[in-house]
Amino acid sequence: MLVDSPPEQRAETAPAPPNRRAIRAAGLLVSLGVLLAVAVASIAIGAKHLPVDQVWHGLFQDSGTYSDVVVRERLSRTVLGLLVGAALGLAGAVLQALTRNPLADPGLLGINVGASAAVVTAITFFGVTSLTGYVWFAFAGAAIVGVLVYSLGGSRSATPVRLALAGTALTAALSGYLQAVMIMDNAALGKMRFWTVGSLGSATNATIMQVLPFLAVGTVLALGLARPLNAVAMGDDTARALGAHLTRTRALSMIAATLLCGAATAACGPIAFVGLMVPHAVRSFTGPDLRWILPYAAVLSPVLLLGADVMGRIIARPAELQVGIVTAVIGGPVFIYLVRRRRTAQL
Amino acid sequence: MKPTRSQVTGSAAGGHSGSPARGSRGAASAQPLRIRAVRSRGLSVRLDIRALTVVVLLIVAALVASVVLIGTGDFPIPAADVIRTLMGNGDAGQEFIVNELRLPRVLVGLLVGAALGLGGALFQSISRNPLGSPDVLGLGQGSTAGALIMIVLFKGSAFQVAGGSLVGGLLTGLAIYVLAWKRGVHGYRLVLVGIGVSAVVTAVNGYLLTKADLVDAARAVVWMTGSLNGRGWEQVWPLLTLCAVLVPLVLVNARPLRMLEMGDDVAYALGVRVERTRMLLMLSAVLLTASATAAAGPVSFVALTAPQLSRRLTRSPGPNLVPAMCMGAALLIVADWASQRAFGADQLPVGVVTGVVGGVYLLWLLVTERKAGRI
């Protein structure tokens, strides 16, 4: 009986659900509306400003005019922003639940630095120069590090602390390698310093198609993990008592997070903070139930990412500020505010 | 990330101090034979024999490594000659190489290592988190930002870069403290705020790097890795002065710090002025770390690993300040020697070695602790 419906979850949803659930659903709808508005803004605003009717024209009656071409270019950038944003938010939420650590983000598990190390290897030792070439390397690097962290973290008997420590250790070793290569090879430094800040500027349809399958599988997996992860969040013993399959849940969560972060990082470089911050912000009004946190994070993370991207274009017009820089500069203070406002930001 | 948990593990392991066992009072009383008390006329000093041995051994190791390091380079000098020259009886050529070129570099290494080890031990103790090192809290990034501004925007001299990094580190430390302040500084909040600040500063650093031309960027990356190349007497004196003031100040407060590890309420009940002690110690830790970083760049992982390693050697609870300091100095000198031996003189800065070694050490720790069932 416990296996089917854990008592905590029943208690969570049963007593006063209609009201709260309605509010949460409405909130999700509002968030979707905001996301749509930000997406339109992301197409309209830039070095060349386009009014909304021209955006509409470019999207649905493309006749090859100059502004239509601009719309097409910005459309792929916006789509990539949507996908990557959602991926980072979902991955952050999953990792935070999995490691029971509010600080967990792709950086903590070494996924960013794995991707970076692979890209620097590609540039220096394999002579790869194109962005579409980096993608596979970055993804492979992220995936390898993801697997390593999981197996070093104890695979079947992985605990949150061990996973975090394994991530930190690999990050240290790999960043030593990364710095050594950048010091020895100026060409690699020239490329890496732009890649590591994280930017949507190089989005093309080819990149999107490269990462889309991974993102799709990762998203489905992550959303499906909401229930088991809810149980895991209560602690190993409770989760086991509730009938959750700990090993399987952990392995699947790592796979989902690696797919999502790896693909996102491969497409636009390491973008800090979206995955860390959005789940935090979301949790403050959804409560700890991952069945709400995950969809909210998937909708609100792209809002943050695209919003930051648009701001980067406005601030530094006619040039642009990379989105990774803007998210960190906005995200940092918001994160500190959240930390200060709560008593302690523990999960 | 939960100190309470590791506390339980630590005392369960019978004073083995396996996982980061901070403030486990049980560990000390489980092995009373290791502790001796020296009493004479009302004055009584508690001596931890094992910790004392570790400290002596570490100092010897650091000195031996220093002599070897002075002898290493394009112009190798045998150890006996190095010692003779240091005593003032060498020939003119060796005297120049030893006293003007290599000795100051080694001294900077020893001082930076000691300052980072002590600063790291203080931060880990104050934040009650084994990962709460200055690297994680963003002090290194703050120093880097100051240095990068000097390198990229003003094309400053080495002296100006050091000044910029010192100011950057101090301002970041201040910002973290002020932002984490809310009727006192809670260890957990300190780490979280530090991570937030560090992310913002990292982004600024990334931006500065993209704006630099390639020559400046290359210089900046070497600085950011942490290097002892070309360090001379002008770095030794300020560092030495600062350490001479701060190290005694910190050691006097080692007892209240140890009580702070038991929690604010307990410490308060034991008569510790919690916030004052914490502020004083944090300020010292920030100053130590920032000036070490100004001298050699943010050498990664010494501050994180030195306290952990020394705790495992002494097997004693508490902050282990002196062992951590000696361990930091020994680590940095050995790492500098390794980087010169492995890659040739001045090819790769010491920070690369500390990063890789630190990472491998953490991994090894992870595997062995798992086998022993301690994490």
From TrEMBL, chain A:
Residues that span the membrane, as ranges: 25-47, 75-95, 107-128, 134-152, 164-188, 208-230, 251-273, 293-312, 319-339
Location(s), subcellular: Cell membrane
InterPro entries documented for this protein: ABC_BtuC-like, ABC_transptr_permease_BtuC
The keyword Transmembrane appears for this protein: yes
MF terms in GO: transmembrane transporter activity
Pfam family, one: FecCD
Entry keyword set: Cell membrane, Membrane, Transmembrane, Transmembrane helix, Transport
Membrane disposition: Multi-pass membrane protein
Superkingdom of origin organism: Bacteria
Family stated for the protein in its record: Belongs to the binding-protein-dependent transport system permease family. FecCD subfamily.
Protein name, as recorded: Iron chelate uptake ABC transporter family permease subunit
Species the sequence originates in: Streptomyces himalayensis subsp. himalayensis
